[in-house]
Model the fold of this input.
Amino acid sequence: MSAEIRDAAAAPGYCAMRQRLATVRGPAAAQPCAGCDREAQLWSYDGTDPDERTDPARGHRYSLDPGRYRPLCRSCHRRATARGASGPLDVERAAWLYRAGASSRGIAAVLDASPSAVLRALRAHGVSIRSRSRRTDR
Ligand SMILES: [Zn+2]
Done:
C-alpha cells in the first residue's frame, strides 16, 4: 500500500463519504430526482466544493460536505458526470427538437428524461407548448 493511499484513507474516502451521506441525508432513493420526475437513486456531488477531493483509486471527484450533493436518478447522474456542471436537462436541445416538430415524448427518449420534465423545462424556457393532438388516426 502506497503512502498516498494511506493518507487518503485518513480523510473520509469516496465510499465512506457515500455512507456518511446516507446517514446524514438519508437514502437518495427516498427523494425525487433533482433533474427529472423520477425517483432518485443516488447522491450526486454538484461540483461546487472549493475543497473538492478526488478518490485516488477510482478518480471520482467528491466533497466532504454532505450539503453539496443532489439526489439524482441514474440517467441524470450519468448526464451530470458526463457533462460536468451543466444543467441536468439540455433545454436548448429540447427546445430545438420541439420546434422542429418532435413530441415531448420523443424528446424525453432522446434526452433520457421524463416527458413531463421535458414539458416543464420547455415552458420554463419560454417555448409555447402545442396543444395535445387529439387525432386518433395512425
Ligand atoms: Zn433524473
